[in-house]
UniProtKB/TrEMBL annotation, chain A:
This is Aconitate hydratase A. Residues 589-712 form the Aconitase A/isopropylmalate dehydratase small subunit swivel domain. The gene is acnA. It comes from Harenicola maris. It comes from the Bacteria. GO terms for molecular function: 4 iron, 4 sulfur cluster binding; aconitate hydratase activity; metal ion binding. Pfam families: Aconitase, Aconitase_C. It catalyses: citrate = D-threo-isocitrate.
Length: 786, 71
């Protein structure tokens, strides 16, 4: 788990412990039965950059902003057996898992050996599939269930085989392959399916490169992006400092179990896709979805299409950002910083640019945030850290940063450009670029390999074609082109040979783990958490403090909102900055917070008051219940327009049941359980959508909310649903079965009564039981209370 | 649980004998399904329904019970 998904989960457990204690039970009974690793990686913001002091300054801010949450996590690690916290600075959870925690083969004291497997509360958990560890992302609620000994029940998944042939050409990187895979698999649709890579091309990829491709499984929509275990896996383990004993055991054990990779094998997948690695070229993806890959020459057209106008001419003043400027250039994310060759490639490009007399454009916010603290030693030994620093790519920390929206404030020049109506974009080596994801004010973002990120920082804009236009003027007045500074494959290989050391990983991790700042945090071991009634960060969640009744039944309901397609969990429950004029900001200020330092939503997932007020506040949310509504508004049957959470409260006070309508792919994006918890707090009994993204569907069920998938041609956002319409839903608890057909009668004020054919998007008997018991937390609490 | 002893490195280990349990199905199964089977067996799940499902996976109604094991 990471620090923003663990906080709500641990807060749930703390509240349930209180409930157990209040009932006369032993609160300590609520301790995980499986090992739980928590990585504090999601709270580092890029406030300072392009300076050698940025690392320390950002770390100081992080501790200052999150002291209360961190003390809570430390309490959990002291008071709950099996919970281990990796403090800030130890890296990103998926990189830690790759480099430190995963064993590929688990051997018990009894001599029994099994393939290593895990579940993670982050959608990018499948990154570990790159080294043959079966894993996928689950919602926080599902994780809580697993922590307390429940298995995850799943129907036999559909499998998709991606047959790889050929090998990547020089100059192309794992990032390019990951973006191509994302595009190809999104084209055919693999939501919830298990993707596995096979064929001779697999053997040509390093385990590091495989992890890049596996990481983006949620972007291609799959549960997994699995690469079987082979010699490259074992070589990776040895290179990252795993024991010789472990490395020696893996091949014989996996061969004996029939799990060792055979490049000539042709398993029977439900579907197959073939990708010829030799055709992969440097590409980018954007400006609003990871699957929209294009050649760099297509960036301008993509932006113009997105903003609906041509980009303007470049200003004569070269110190001002032009229309189409790069606002942020960030080497960030587990996705593309865990592969040392990508970091070295970025460093070599920086070195080549510096030698030619180039530097980054002055308006670009540059940053380097590797997923592993060992990256610093790698770049230093390769002699590339100074070159990256010269172009503004100083290490700003070891955490998720820009990739998850913690990009910090924009440069003043970019703020002015936005005020002037110019289009500006982020270029990042991250995994997502949904509008507002990287920064609330940025609607445009391109995903790219680390060397391309540096190149775009130098060019300063996304106009024309970075491959053929000059990047700048060299020391001798000559035009410098991308080809002049693009990293050579031989140089990358030489640098890696020179720089990699098996001892780096464990040494850097151990050093970061002995954090003086973390050790100073005062947290005592006690079975019940001492809640502070004045806290702005931690409040006992209502839904975990008592057993909740089931939301199933036969009832009449009214629509709370009608949403369209591609509503992400970011849209439902934001993670980014809180503005002072928002409902959440106003609540925080009224409780003593400073207007200019409200922190981000992700930091408040232990406080339901803030999270409730943040629901559906993303500026791109459109509520089709009535024209002209602001994103955070809805309308009641009496015509009153209110904030969504206030309207839900008004409906509840009148005894009205609420349901929510949505289009295709409802709940795509991050695995955040607050997107379901928040909707549960709104009192919603069912979400009726054309389709659901996998993790969010399970999170809804985890909160006791019935996902109803529309099975006929009904399209909610174009059906003229009004706040006066009445729905009748008939799903008695005792009659719910897997994929039950559920007719929903819709009585519209301005139209005939119609039946919306739906089925319960409930895939297993275990999920049926969860809904019948009012959600995962109720189920756990019920079992504890006897 | 059907398991087998192997020599792995300097020591012997016990592993689940997937090739024997899955028989001819093994070659056709993607590795992800083999892994789910291994996990299902080690967690004490019923083997026969799983084998039936592996022969005809589509809409078999079979459910894996997946749970990582921590040592």
């Amino acid at each position: 788990m990471h620090d923003t998904t663990c906080t709500p989960a641990l807060a749930d457990i703390a509240a349930m412990r209180d409930a157990v204690a209040a009932a006369g039970g032993d609160p300590a009974i609520l301790s995980p039965t499986l090992p739980v690793d928590v990585s504090v990686d999601h709270s580092l913001a890029v406030d300072h950059y392009a300076s050698t002091g940025a690392f320390q300054a950002n770390a100081k801010n992080e501790y200052g902003r999150n002291a209360e949450r961190y003390a809570f996590m430390k309490w959990a690690s002291e008071s709950m057996e099996g919970v281990r916290v990796h403090p800030p600075g130890t890296g990103i959870m998926h990189t830690i898992n790759l480099e430190q925690l995963a064993t590929v083969l688990q051997v018990g004291k009894d001599g029994f050996a099994h393939p290593d497997m895990l579940l993670g509360t982050d959608s990018h958990t499948p990154m570990i599939n790159g080294i043959g560890v079966m894993a996928w992302g689950v919602g926080g609620l599902e994780a809580e269930s697993v922590m307390f000994g429940q298995s995850v029940s799943l129907a036999v998944p559909k499998t998709v085989g991606v047959r790889l042939i050929g090998c990547l050409p020089a100059g192309s990187f794992a990032t390019d392959l990951a973006l191509e895979v994302t595009h190809r698999l999104r084209e055919i649709g693999v939501t919830g399916e298990f993707v596995e890579f096979f064929g001779p091309g697999v053997a040509t990829l390093s385990a590091d490169a495989r992890a890049v491709v596996a990481n983006m499984a949620p972007e291609y929509g799959a549960s997994t992006g699995y690469f079987p275990v082979d010699k490259s896996t074992v070589e990776y383990l040895a290179r990252t400092g795993r024991s010789a004993t472990l490395c020696a055991r893996i091949e014989p054990a996996f061969r004996a179990m029939g799990l060792w990779f055979d490049p000539d094998a042709t398993p029977a997948f439900d579907r197959e896709v073939e990708i010829d690695l030799s055709t992969i070229t440097p590409i980018i993806a954007g400006p609003r979805r990871p699957q929209d890959r294009c050649a760099p020459s297509g960036a301008q057209a993509r932006i113009e299409n997105a903003i609906g106008r041509p980009l303007g001419h470049t200003d004569k003043d070269e110190s001002c950002p032009p229309d189409g400027a790069v606002a942020i250039a960030a080497i960030t994310s587990c996705t593309n910083t865990s592969d040392p060759s990508l970091l070295v490639a970025a460093g070599i490009l920086a070195r080549n640019a510096r030698e030619k007399g180039l530097t980054s454009a002055p308006w670009v916010k540059t940053s380097l945030a590797p997923g592993s603290p060992s990256a610093r030693a790698l770049l230093q030994r390769a002699g590339l850290d100074g070159d990256l620093s010269a172009l503004g790519f100083d290490v700003v920390g070891f955490g998720c940063t820009t990739c998850i929206g913690n990009s910090g404030p924009l440069p003043e020049a970019i703020e002015l450009a936005l005020n002037d109506g110019k289009a500006v974009a982020a270029v990042l080596s991250g995994n997502r670029n949904f509008p507002g994801r990287v920064h609330p004010k940025l609607d445009l973002g391109f995903l790219a390999s680390p060397p391309l990120v540096v190149a775009y920082a130098v060019k300063g804009d996304l106009k024309g074609d970075i491959a053929t236009d000059p990047l700048g003027v060299g020391t001798h007045g000559e035009d410098i082109f991308l080809a002049d500074i693009w990293p050579d494959a031989v140089d990358i290989a030489l640098a890696l040979t020179k720089a990699q050391s098996a001892g780096d990983v464990s040494r850097a991790f151990a050093g970061a783990s002995q954090s003086a700042a973390w050790n100073k945090i005062d947290a005592r071991s006690q079975s019940q958490f001492p809640w502070d009634a004045a806290s702005r960060y931690l409040r006992p969640p209502k839904f975990a403090s008592a057993v909740q009744p089931t939301r199933l039944g036969h009832y009449r309901a009214k629509p709370l909102m009608v949403l369209g397609d591609d509503i992400t969990t970011d849209h439902i429950s934001p993670a980014g900055a809180i503005s002072a004029d928002s409902a959440a900001g106003q609540w925080l200020v009224s409780h003593g917070a400073k207007c200019d330092d409200l922190n981000v939503y992700a930091a408040y997932r232990g406080n339901w008051e803030v999270m409730l007020r943040g629901l559906f506040t993303n500026k791109l949310v459109r509520n089709h219940l009535q024209d002209g509504l602001a994103p955070y508004e809805t309308v009641l049957g009496d015509g009153r327009v209110m904030r969504v959470f206030e309207a839900a409260d008004a409906m509840a006070q009148r005894g009205d049941n609420a349901v929510l309508f949505a289009g295709e792919r409802y709940g795509m994006g991050s695995s955040r359980d607050w997107a379901a918890k928040g909707v549960a707090l709104l009192g919603v009994r069912a979400v009726i959508a054309r389709s659901f993204e996998r993790i969010h569907r399970t999170n809804l069920i985890g909160m006791g909310i019935l996902p109803l998938q529309i099975a006929n041609g009904f399209v909610p956002q174009s059906s003229g649903i009004s706040p006066l319409d009445i729905l009748e839903i008939d799903v008695p608890s005792a009659e719910l079965v897997v994929r039950k057909k559920v007719p929903v009668r819709l009585s519209q004020q301005n139209g005939p009564e119609q039946s919306i054919l739906c089925y319960a998007a409930v895939e297993t008997q275990q999920e049926v039981g969860i809904l019948q018991e009012g959600g995962v937390l109720s189920k756990i609490l019920t079992s504890c209370l006897g | 649980m059907k398991h087998m002893s192997i020599n792995a490195g300097e020591t012997g280990l016990q592993v689940i004998n997937l090739p024997e349990i899955l028989g001819k199905s093994l070659a056709n199964l993607p590795t992800v399904l083999r892994l789910l089977c291994e996990n299902h067996i080690r967690n004490g799940g019923a083997v026969e329904p799983m084998l039936d499902a592996m022969r005809t996976p589509a809409d078999s109604g079979f459910e894996f019970f997946f749970c990582p094991i921590g040592y």
